[in-house]
Amino acid sequence: MFDLRRFDRSTSVFVGLLVISFLLATFxxxxxxxxxxxxxxxxxxxxxxxxxxxxxxxxxxxxxxxDAVSDLAGLREDNELLQSRVRDLEEELADTATxxxxxxxxxxxxxxEPPGELNSITARVIAAGASEFDFVRKIDxxxxxxxxxxxxxxDEDGLVGRVVLVTDSNxxxxxxxxxxxxxxVRVKETNETGVVEGQGTGELRVEMFGAVDPLEAxxxxxxxxxxxxxxxxxxxxxxxxxxxxxxxxxARADPAIRVSKLDFVRVIIDxxxxxxxxDLEEESAELSGVPPTEQESQTP
Length: 300
What we know:
Blueprint: H1 4-26, H2 35-110, E1 120-128, E2 136-139, E3 152-154, E4 159-166, E5 171-175, E6 182-187, E7 193-198, E8 204-208, E9 220-223, E10 233-237, E11 249-255, E12 264-268, H3 280-287
Antiparallel strand pairs: 1-2, 1-12, 2-5, 3-4, 3-12, 4-5, 6-7, 6-9, 7-8, 8-11, 9-10, 10-11
């Protein structure tokens, strides 16, 4: 009877001898002088070289992905650094622009020539009231600098207001937009006179008695004298108006100054209208106990 186990052993031996013969057949005949070790190395290299190439093909995309992730992290870090630098440069640019604007405003104020060759000193607004309904500004000059109550205050655009309270080193200025302040004006185009009063807003109220000529939008108003030196710009008529019955004319005007932009101003120190304005003493007494509410720590 045929022995199956004996057949399996014979088959296994045959297959093993066949594999060994195949490996030996792959040895390089030119390496005969190198001995058995050299032949084995050559055979193993020839057997595993295709496997190494295949493994390299499999690993190449994985290695590339890892490198890409690493590069992406580096790019994000560089991007954050660049954004931070851009923000720093933008802040520096804004500070430079603000400084240039302040220099330009100061140069404009310093270049002012008060009417009548009156002497003046430069001041800076250092505090405002607690709300938009507080129509005073605090400036950084006072009696030690020659400032007195009633003195006019101007900037490069026109009349700002007048001094109503003075200390040794500071003064309070009531703005022309204050409803309690009135200014005698003259229409530059017609030479007619009237009175301008603040309305507590951006507009001024113009009232003229005995007016003959209408007021056209764009007509310029300037101080007529009396409580203020003549010739200082006060405002511009914002809409046309004609005289009503009794020759009374009421119109609106925009202030010449920009209240929200007040910074550097000039106080005309050669003009003392106290004798012409007896109500000023009472007005100053009302403000004597009301200091500006904005903190002066903001002053540069």
